[in-house]
Design goal:
This protein has a six-stranded antiparallel β-sheet, with no helix packed on it. The chain has a five-stranded antiparallel β-sheet with strand order 3-2-5-7-6, with no helix packed on it. By secondary structure, it is mainly beta. The longest helix is centred in the first third of the chain and has 35 residues, at 7-41. The protein contains two helices and 21 strands. A hairpin with a 4-residue loop joins strand 9 and strand 10 (185-186). The model is unreliable at 1-14, 23-30 and 36-48 (pLDDT under 50).
Length: 367
């Protein structure tokens, strides 16, 4: 009798099923690995809350785009223009909360800036000098933003393609006229035969109250008391930006300590609080006073600078003892020493200490 062996058949069948099972497992493993890689390489945007890196889209009432980035159209308006809506270009910086620069744009008349929805930014502009220049003092920003006293805006970027409007007075140049309080009359300047007009020329020399060829007379121990009225040359511009330094140059061997009032309020010498760069740039001046940044100096809102000083006993001031009263607006500028850092001052931090806005000189001519 022959005995049939079934072990070979049984072994062959098991091997086949094991092979099929192994291939299936391998396919599943490959699919799983591919799925994990795919999810890591292209994560879904977080649209439900803080991503742990300062971006919280839940703060936005408007749904953020899937990419979480959008182009915001930015406009800068001049609120001093009463005849219509006037926009002008400024250079605007958007900083992240850690102080790093997100982006900047030199086009604030419908220019676009790419931002991340739900992220909070600190926004600042830099100053440019001259008539129709740029002010760094932003006065108004879109709803929901906060504006600090120095014009810095803090806001959370929300939307999918918004248009934002900021407002800052356009910068302008000054014009000045002077009145002799002791002589009770407006002072002629050497440029023309009028005592009551405003002079925009830098370095205008103001003298006597009767003609433009003689200076004001101050006897030994006598008082020099002058009121200078400063305003903008254009009705939709502001001489002020982030404050104006009133700088006084006079020989202290002839004159005593001055008394200065701005808009009728006594002010103190601020020389000790000047920045390092300002202190070097203005080392030839004996005194410095500050017009606050919030005080608009437009054509309609002139500012009065009241300057009074007595000659020292035994001193008889002459033309060699003139008094210079100069105006230097402070602004915001991009540091020349540090990348993507903005600073405030009347001069920049370069070795030449360049004026941010034009330094405007006036001279009180003493006969």
């Amino acid at each position: 009798m022959k005995i049939r062996s079934i072990s070979n058949k049984s072994g062959k069948g098991n091997g086949m099923w094991l092979g099929i099972f192994g291939v299936a497992v391998l396919v599943l493993l490959v699919a799983a690995v591919f799925g994990i890689y795919k999810n890591q390489a292209a994560p879904e945007p977080d649209v439900d809350g803080d991503d742990g890196n300062g971006q919280d889209v839940s703060a936005c009432a408007t749904k953020c785009p899937d990419t979480l980035t959008f182009a915001a159209v930015v406009n800068m308006e001049n609120p001093l223009n009463q005849t219509g809506t006037e926009t002008y270009d400024t250079t605007m910086y958007f900083f992240n909360t850690d102080g790093s620069l997100k982006t900047s744009s030199a086009d604030s008349t419908a220019g676009a800036s790419t931002l991340e929805c739900g992220r909070t930014y600190t926004i600042q502009t830099i100053s440019t000098s001259g008539a129709a220049g740029d002010s760094a003092l932003i006065k108004a920003a879109p709803t929901g933003a906060s504006v600090s006293a120095d014009g810095t805006v803090t806001m959370t970027a929300c939307g999918a393609g918004e248009t934002w409007t900021f407002r800052a007075n356009q910068h302008g140049l000054p014009e000045v006229r002077a009145k002799d309080i002791v002589g009770d009359g407006f002072m002629f300047d050497t440029l023309d035969a009028s005592a009551t007009d405003y002079e925009s020329t830098d370095g205008a020399i103001f003298g006597g109250t009767t003609n433009n060829v003689t200076g004001v007379t101050v006897d030994s121990g006598g008082e020099l008391h002058v009121m200078e009225y400063v305003r903008a040359t254009a009705d939709d511009q502001d001489v002020n930006d982030l404050g104006i330094l009133v700088l006084v140059d006079m020989p202290t061997s002839v004159w005593g300590t001055p008394t200065v009032k701005i808009d009728g309020n006594a002010v103190s010498d601020v020389t000790a609080s000047l920045s390092d760069q300002e202190r070097i740039a203005y080392s030839d001046y004996e005194y410095a006073y500050l017009i606050p940044s919030g005080r608009i100096v437009s054509q309609a809102k002139e500012i009065a600078v009241d300057f009074s000083v007595f000659a020292l006993s035994g001193q008889n001031p002459t033309g060699a003892h003139n008094v210079s009263i100069d105006y230097s607006p402070r602004g915001r500028y991009a540091s020349t020493q540090q990348t993507n850092v903005l600073k405030v001052g009347a001069v920049d931090d370069s070795t030449s200490r360049t004026q941010i806005h034009t330094l405007h000189d006036t001279v009180i001519w003493v006969a």
